[in-house]
């Protein structure tokens, strides 16, 4: 089979790779579509602690079950499925507390295990969720990042009258924006350096948009009032965006960190204490978040619009380079084997 294989920083090749076979409790899935995630851009650059070359990326994917182990339950060949790539042990203290998304023994398909940027991939049957034909392949490939966004908004506890800021109009930022808008959050400011992505955010329901390179934090906040935002989502994860998030948050406000680019950041923690600002990380999602994402996409409440583009798997390496070096209005490439 063909598999897009990461070999090291900015090195990725489409290679002939042995077709895998399902083990106990597993199924073999023929991949129909797989999205490129922002966290994989970090991995492509060699900046991810959980990815070691050679590695087949891809944790946002949909496909069809083609082979089933005898212990794989009720899934039958021919079943169309979207993959929940988060593998948890179910027995550690956090799993038993209902916090399986931060399982102490977690693995991710496409990080610690071969992922969906290939013709075929093996996954546990329990992580293959059947879907209806109401979802296209592109829509189904967005289930995982939408679940990430639903979790972030859930942690923010954003209310109807809240003023929210979304930093970064990449695919996660645009999905967070749409979840906030659907939830009826009062006003939303989306901040991004790319004019086309700001325009996309405005079209998807952002009340205001701003360029952090052309305006001070105070100028960015002007449409929301100088008091500051009730909740700020950093969907980029760079030192500069984390500092911007702090600058945009009101006294007593909340910051939700979603992006994973820079490992270390220097923040004014005296101000965090004095202003009682809450900072929380948001990582992956619960099973309920994942299934909510499926239902939301089935009901058409998420607009994939001009910010997604389908490319063949053979164009995968170029697509990684384009997202990093040549950003456009497209923030999500969906690859098809």
**Poorly predicted spans:** none
Query: Using only CA atoms, what is the Rg?
Result: 20 Å
Assembly level: single chain
Query: How large is the count of helical segments?
Result: 11
Outline:
By secondary structure, this protein is of the alpha/beta class. The protein contains eleven helices and 18 strands. Helix 9 (269-274) links the parallel strand 15 (249-257) and strand 16 (278-281).
Describe the protein's architecture and organization.
The chain has 337 residues and is α/β, with parallel strands linked by helices. The chain is built from 11 helices and 18 strands. It has helices spanning 38-44, 93-96, 137-141, 143-156, 171-182, 195-203, 217-221, 239-248, 269-274, 287-298, 316-325, and strands at 2-8, 11-16, 26-35, 55-56, 60-68, 80-83, 86-87, 107-108, 120-124, 128-130, 163-167, 187-191, 208-210, 229-234, 249-257, 278-281, 308-312, 332-336. The strands form 4 sheets. Strands 3, 5, 6, 9, 10, 17 and 18 form a 7-stranded mixed beta sheet that branches. It has a 6-stranded parallel beta sheet with strand order 13-12-11-14-15-16, sandwiched between helices. The protein has a 3-stranded antiparallel beta sheet with strand order 2-1-4, with no helix packed on it. Helix 5 (171-182) links the parallel strand 11 (163-167) and strand 12. Helix 4 packs across helix 5 and helix 4 (143-156) crosses helix 10.
């Amino acid at each position: 089979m063909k598999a897009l294989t990461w070999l090291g920083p900015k090195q990725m090749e489409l290679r002939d790779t042995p077709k895998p076979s399902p083990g106990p409790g597993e199924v073999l899935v023929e991949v129909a579509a797989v999205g490129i995630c922002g966290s994989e851009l970090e991995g492509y650059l060699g900046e991810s602690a959980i990815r070691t070359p050679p590695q087949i990326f891809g944790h946002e994917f949909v496909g069809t079950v083609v082979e089933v182990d005898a212990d794989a339950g009720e899934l039958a060949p021919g079943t169309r499925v979207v993959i929940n790539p988060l593998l948890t042990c179910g027995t550690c203290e956090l799993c038993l507390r209902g916090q399986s998304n931060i399982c102490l023994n977690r693995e991710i398909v496409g990080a610690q295990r071969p992922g969906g940027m290939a013709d075929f991939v093996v996954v546990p049957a329990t992580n293959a969720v059947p879907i209806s034909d109401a979802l296209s392949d592109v829509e189904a490939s967005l289930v995982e990042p939408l679940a990430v966004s639903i979790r972030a908004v859930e942690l923010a506890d954003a209310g109807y009258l809240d003023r929210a800021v979304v930093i970064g109009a990449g695919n996660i930022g645009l999905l967070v924006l749409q979840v906030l808008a659907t939830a009826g959050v009062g006003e939303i400011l989306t901040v991004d350096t790319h004019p086309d992505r700001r325009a996309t955010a405005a079209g998807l329901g952002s009340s205001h948009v701003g360029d952090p390179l052309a305006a001070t934090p105070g100028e960015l906040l002007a449409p929301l009032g100088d008091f500051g935002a009730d909740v700020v989502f950093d969907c980029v994860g760079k030192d500069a965006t984390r500092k911007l998030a702090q600058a945009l948050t009101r006294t007593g406000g909340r910051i939700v960190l979603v992006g994973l680019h820079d490992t270390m950041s220097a923040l004014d923690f005296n101000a965090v204490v004095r202003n009682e600002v809450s900072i929380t990380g948001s990582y992956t999602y619960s099973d309920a978040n994942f299934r909510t994402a499926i239902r939301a996409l089935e009901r058409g409440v998420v607009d994939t619009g001009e910010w997604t583009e389908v490319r063949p798997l053979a164009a995968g390496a170029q697509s990684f380079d384009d997202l990093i070096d040549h950003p456009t209005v497209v923030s999500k490439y969906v690859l098809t084997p």
